[in-house]
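Thread: quick sanity check before group meeting

JM: Hey all, I'm pulling together slides for Thursday and realized we never actually wrote out the predicted structure for the chain we discussed last week. Dropping the sequence here so it's in one place. If anyone has concerns about the input, flag it before I start.
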Amino acid sequence: MSGRLTASALEVPPALLAGLAEYIRAAVRAEASQTSDGDPWVAIDAHLGVTRREAAELARAGHVEGARKLGKRWRARRSACDAAIERVGIAPPPLASAGSPSTDDDQGADAVLAELGLERVAAKGKARR
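JM (edit): ok, ran it. Output follows.
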């Protein structure tokens, strides 16, 4: 025997191909119905508010269930990331506020300056020499 496959060895009964095709269709439909359940895949670093390196460490350590590396980022289901937040104690990223650009720290600094009888002076541009 030469080790090569001949055309007759590759022939598959049509009934077997039809059954296999139906099995694949059913498996794809089942997977598609499970993935559209409102639990999307998210980038772990963005969802947890950590660096990419920290996200990789969490995923490799098994803290984020079902994590997969796609390209340069680790991704997982949103529910798995939320479970990791509870289990590991990671603080979720703060929500972006639509208010003014001043923060609580700025207001606190203004209050301290006011107690001292001072006020904030606007920053000047860089002076030329």
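AS: nice. The chain has a mean pLDDT of 77. Strands lie at 41-43, 68-70, 73-77.
JM: adding both to the slides.
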